[in-house]
């Protein structure tokens, strides 16, 4: 049975051994009222509570969350760098099969994002971080086993690749968890750091795996899975030892339902396929594209794309604050279109420098668009308040939109590799796929302008 507790004015819990802090609440950070590191009183909007330990607890949870999410993204993206190495390990898959191995983790990860969002209120943020981290052991151990057996059937390899999708679900639960810890005025920065830290996992795995598997003689591809295991165990330990569960973290199904009934949820989700979907899709395909088009170039350079895309994401949010999210989002689509066109020219002339520069422009543009599109969501829903909908309810619906858009946008990570595969199969070239992408970006840019920028549009005056 739990020891009786008393609440301090600062919202902390003081037991019999906490006399000093109970007498002086300025010394008492939020404490745990019962086993399992559950905090029963949490009010980050109270300045006194926030200053007297709340911020410190929130930051501790943020750091643990970033580490776990970083690993989630890395595992989600590991097949992007494993697949180009499969021929050297003795596998004889077709180009189409290799693109399937790249695409299916994104498909699974996108599908898991909605249930992962609701896992935090159901199980607790700390508890689910431990579970979701340990789930990463399944895809990494399976990779280590499968890549040592070139006779493994394609269907089995595809199922193992699908397991990596659990890493994609981590983003949703991590973002949902951290949003409960921070006051409204600091949520943007905290969630931006959390998202950027996760995105960096894609670049890190594409940089580290080629180095790790090449240590010593030959290629030891199984290390691409084994290298994660100690870090996964460390992430689970950090979450167990330093993170917390919040009793007040409740699933807001009503706000989620409100979001599904708002047309802007689906418009923004469509736009997010073009920004985040492009980022994760190009990140997954880029190493294989390099290996296929420029075999003379080391595939390890592919990490640069995910790196610059990750670093550009916070900048997209900053620019959106100054210029408006819709303007920056339109600009990002223009940049993606130019990058795709540059890649077409590079393929025709077989110029690696132009190909790399074009894809780096693509990645930077996707990063800027990720930040600006997310910035648009609260602005769009706030602008829609007042017509029978309170501002508080509108902003809660915006939180639901963020979850939906994050899930739908991730499906772009499946669509882009599959489009490259179909283009290669039907035309023998990547050019057709890139022309399709240019057309899609033009449509998305036009939709953004028509709904949020066009003079006379309902949202235009709100400077979305």
Structural summary, described in words:
The protein folds into two domains: 38-251, Up-down Bundle (Growth Hormone, Chain: A); 252-456, MFS general substrate transporter like domains (Growth Hormone, Chain: A, Up-down Bundle), CATH 1.20.1250.20. Mean pLDDT is 88; it is low at 1-28. Helix content is 73%, strand content 2%. With 464 residues, the protein is mostly helical. A hairpin with a 5-residue loop joins strand 1 (6-7) and strand 2 (13-14). The strands form two sheets. It has a two-stranded antiparallel ribbon with strand order 1-2. Strands 3-4 form a two-stranded parallel sheet. Helix 3 runs parallel beside helix 7, helix 4 runs antiparallel to helix 7 and helix 14 packs antiparallel against helix 18.
What is this structure's SSE topology?
Blueprint: E1 6-7, E2 13-14, H1 19-23, E3 38-39, H2 47-82, H3 95-123, H4 125-135, H5 137-146, H6 154-163, H7 166-181, H8 184-213, H9 223-226, H10 229-242, E4 245-246, H11 253-260, H12 263-293, H13 303-323, H14 325-349, H15 352-383, H16 391-410, H17 412-427, H18 431-452
Helix pairs in contact: 2-3, 2-4, 2-7, 2-8, 2-10, 2-12, 3-4, 3-6, 3-7, 3-12, 3-16, 3-17, 4-7, 4-10, 5-6, 7-8, 8-13, 11-16, 12-13, 12-15, 12-16, 12-17, 12-18, 13-14, 13-15, 14-15, 14-18, 15-16, 17-18
């Amino acid at each position: 049975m739990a020891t009786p507790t008393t609440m301090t004015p600062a919202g902390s819990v003081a037991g019999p051994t906490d006399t000093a802090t109970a007498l002086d609440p300025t010394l008492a950070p939020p404490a745990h009222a019962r086993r399992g590191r559950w905090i029963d009183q949490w009010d980050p909007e109270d300045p006194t509570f926030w200053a007297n330990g709340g911020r410190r607890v929130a930051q501790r949870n943020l750091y643990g969350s970033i580490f776990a999410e970083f690993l989630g993204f890395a595992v989600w993206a590991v097949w992007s760098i494993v697949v180009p190495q499969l021929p050297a390990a003795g596998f004889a898959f077709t180009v189409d099969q290799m693109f399937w191995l790249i695409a299916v983790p994104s498909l699974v990860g996108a599908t898991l994002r909605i249930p992962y969002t609701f896992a935090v209120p159901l199980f607790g943020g700390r508890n689910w971080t431990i579970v979701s981290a340990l789930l990463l052991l399944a895809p990494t151990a399976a990779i280590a086993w499968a890549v040592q057996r070139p006779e493994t059937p394609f269907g089995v390899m595809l199922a193992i690749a699908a397991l990596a999708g659990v890493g994609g679900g981590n983003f949703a639960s991590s973002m949902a968890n951290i949003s409960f810890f921070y006051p409204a005025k600091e949520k943007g920065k905290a969630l931006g750091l959390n998202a950027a830290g996760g995105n960096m996992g894609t670049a890190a795995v594409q940089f580290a795996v080629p180095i790790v598997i090449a240590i010593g003689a030959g290629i030891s591809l199984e290390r691409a899975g084994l290298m994660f295991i100690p870090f996964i165990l460390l992430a689970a330990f950090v979450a167990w030892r330093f993170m917390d569960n919040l009793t007040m973290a409740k699933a807001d199904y009503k706000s989620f339902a409100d979001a599904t009934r708002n047309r802007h949820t689906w418009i923004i989700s469509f736009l997010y396929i073009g920004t985040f979907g492009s980022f994760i899709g190009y990140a997954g395909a880029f190493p294989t594209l390099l290996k296929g088009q420029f075999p003379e170039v080391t595939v390890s350079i592919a990490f640069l794309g995910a790196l610059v895309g990750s670093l550009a994401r916070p900048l997209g949010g900053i620019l959106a604050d100054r210029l408006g999210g819709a303007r920056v989002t339109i600009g990002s689509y223009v940049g993606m279109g130019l990058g795709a066109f540059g890649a077409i020219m590079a393929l025709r002339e077989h110029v690696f420098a132009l190909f790399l520069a074009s894809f780096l422009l693509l990645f930077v543009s996707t990063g800027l668009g990720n930040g600006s599109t997310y910035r648009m969501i609260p602005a769009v829903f706030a602008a829609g308040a007042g017509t029978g909908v309170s501002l508080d309810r509108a902003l809660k619906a915006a939180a639901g939109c963020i979850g939906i858009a994050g899930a739908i946008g991730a499906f772009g990570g499946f669509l882009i590799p599959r489009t490259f595969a179909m283009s290669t199969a039907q035309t023998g070239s990547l050019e057709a796929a890139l022309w399709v992408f240019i057309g899609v970006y033009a449509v998305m840019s036009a939709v953004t302008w028509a709904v949020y920028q066009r003079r006379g549009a309902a949202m235009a005056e709100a400077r979305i």
